[in-house]
Amino acid sequence: MIAVLGLVVGVVAGLLVRPEVPAVVEPYLPIAVVAALDAVFGGLRAMLDGIFDDKVFVVSFLSNVVVAALIVFLGDKLGVGAQLSTGVVVVLGIRIFSNAAAIRRHIFRA
Amino acid sequence: MGTEETPGGENRSRELPAEVQGPPPAEPVRPAEDAAPEQDEQHQDPDGKAPRSGRQRLAEGLWPPRVTRPQLIVALLLFVLGLGLAIQVRSNNDSSALRGARQEDLVRILDELDDRTQRLEGEKQRLEDQRTGLENSSDQAEEARKQTVEKERQLGILAGTVAAQGPGITLTIDDKKGSVEADMLLDAIQELRAAGAEAIQINDVRVVANTYLSDTDSGGVRVDGRKVGKPYRFKVIGKPQDLEPALNIPGGVVQTLEKEQATVTVARAEKIVVDALRAAKRPDYARSSSQ
C-alpha cells in the first residue's frame, strides 16, 4: 500500500513541481522509465510468487535503468541510437508482457 | 498499475478462502521467470504459515498498510518511477517535440528550417522589390499628375480659360475724339507682350493668342467681335518695371496715342486681377501629336 502511495505521490509531484531535467539525462529518461516499469512488473510478479526480496528489487530496478540508459548512450555514440533504443523498448516490452501474463494468472487464475 | 489493481485485489481477497485449495497457477510459468531477477530468495513471509496464493499475498501487501523496510524501499523506487513517468509525459505534451530528440533528427530539422528560411527570405525580397516598384510608380504617377495640373493652370492662363492675378499695370486710353483705331490698340498689345505681359484684358474681354481687333463703322473698336466701350482699360499682369517703360519709350505707344489726341494713363499696381474668361474651344482639325 505504501508502495502504491509512493507511485501516486511521484506522479503527482512530477506533474505539479515540474522539475527541470538536465539536458544530458533527457534523451535517456524514456528508456529509463520503461526499464523501471519492467523492474516493477518483475517485482510485482515475484511478490505474487512469494519470492519477493527488497534488496533484489532495488538492485534489479537500478541496474535495469542504468543498463538501458547505457545501451542507448552507447548506441548514440555508435550512431545507431534510434535502432538500439527501439530494440531496448521491444525487449523490455516483451518482458513486461510476459510478467503481466504471470501476474494475470495469479490474480485472475486464467 | 498498482492503483488499478487495488480494488480488484481487495474484492477477490474477500472470496478467497473458498478456493484456497486450488493449485497455485503460478507454478508452470515460474521457470520462464528468469527475466525477473528476484528469484534467488525463496521466502519473505515472516510467519511460517502454509503457502498462500498470489492473491493473498497481494491482498496482504495492499491492506492493511504496513510501514516495513521493503514497503518503504519499493515506495521510494516507485516514487522515482512515477516522477520520471510524469516528467516524460509532461515533456511530451509540452509541444516541444524537440526536447529529447536525437542529434541527427535535430540536424535534419535544422536543415529543413534553413531551407525554409532561405525560401521565405527570397520571397520576402521579391515582395519588397515589388512593393518598392509599386511605390515608385505610384509616386511617379502622383508627380506626373501634379505636373499636369500645374501645366493645365499655366496653359489655362495663356488660353484665358482661368482667371489670373499678380502684379502689373493698368493702361487707360481715354479716346474722346474717336480717333483711336484698332491697329493702335494692337500696337499697344504687341508692345505689352514684347515687354513680358502674361495676361491681358481689355475692359471685359480677355486677350489671348487668337484675339483679333477690328474697327467699327461708328468709330469704336471690336475685340474678338465684341464692341468694347471707351475708355479702353487694359489690365496687364507682368513685371511693372518692364511694362511701364515699354509703353513710355519715345515714339512708343503712349506718344503715338497722345498724338491722336487721346489721354493715356499708366499706373502700376501690386495686384491686378484678370478675371475675364474665354471658353476653351476644342480645335476641329488640329490634334496633339505628342501621344
Automatic annotation (TrEMBL), chain A:
Key words, A-Z: Cell membrane, Membrane, Transmembrane, Transmembrane helix
Chain segments annotated as transmembrane: 29-48, 55-74, 80-103
Record's subcellular location: Cell membrane
Bilayer topology annotation: Multi-pass membrane protein
Keyword Flavoprotein listed: no
Coarse class of the protein's main subcellular location: membrane
This protein's name: Small basic protein
Native source species: Streptomyces silvensis
Source organism phylogeny: Bacteria, Bacillati, Actinomycetota, Actinomycetes, Kitasatosporales
